[in-house]
Amino acid sequence: xxxxxxxxxxxxTRLKVRFEDGLNAPIAISxxxxxxxxxxxxxxxxxxxxxxxxxxxxxxxxxxxxxHVEVQLRKIGLNQHFEETEFVPISNVxxxxxxxxxxxxxxxxxxxxxxxxxxxxxxxxxxNDIAEQSLLNDKVQMMDIASFVGFPGDNRTEWWDQxxxxxxxxxxxxxxxxxxxxxNVDVITADTMLVSGLSFSGSxxxxxxxxxxxxxxxxxxxxxxxDNYVEPKILGIMSGHWWLDExxxxxxxxxxxxxxxxxxxxxxxxxxxxxxx
Length: 277
Known about the structure:
Elements: E1 12-20, E2 27-37, E3 43-47, H1 54-58, E4 65-75, E5 85-89, E6 97-99, E7 106-109, E8 120-121, E9 125-126, H2 133-138, E10 145-150, E11 168-174, E12 192-196, E13 207-210, E14 233-244, E15 255-264, H3 265-274
Parallel strand pairs: 2-9
Antiparallel strand pairs: 1-2, 1-4, 2-3, 3-7, 4-5, 4-8, 6-7, 10-11, 10-13, 11-12, 12-15, 13-14, 14-15
């Protein structure tokens, strides 16, 4: 079993984002984010920088800027949170975003909403559930099993649960050495990790969960110091993938390489600490 509490799923949400330049048609994108409650008791929505910064998608010279962000909130009910959802605009979006300077990581800090419906909210993941560098050094290994949870799809396809607006999970294995950032000329941001797994549009911003490893020690009269058990932790944010274009094949038939890359959890913690969030 993964060891991940099912209530964690309700900390994962969809984002709707709009970029505008005042002249051309707006650009609308969708992505995934997840809620963290920091050790300073602040509500933080974690996602990719490229979901909120048009320069990463359109180039540094673009005149497009971020003008609108909506977050999908869920009505809190008695039926395991399986209630209706609604997208709610953030009113102060330009003033509450913190960007990493070199990693594909962004935080929306304690957003204020426009006409937020009563009883609509979300669950939180605690900051202590984010993997620190020491865990990546000592406990996480290549080939470990993990899952990312999000809302893959675009304006034409939606692969999540459409009735309940629930995210879906996809299994991966860690492919690069987890204690050091993965380096490749095709990955233009810092502090990444490679995984063997299929991510697609809309998956950006999905949390990557390390599955628990080993068996939990049982209580009893005999105490044995055994550190083989590793708790589930957030290892990072799904950030991108490679397409494998076959020679002499139309672009329509391009195939996923099977490799995706993740911004490591250390960038999330660095950004939280940088701004004392």
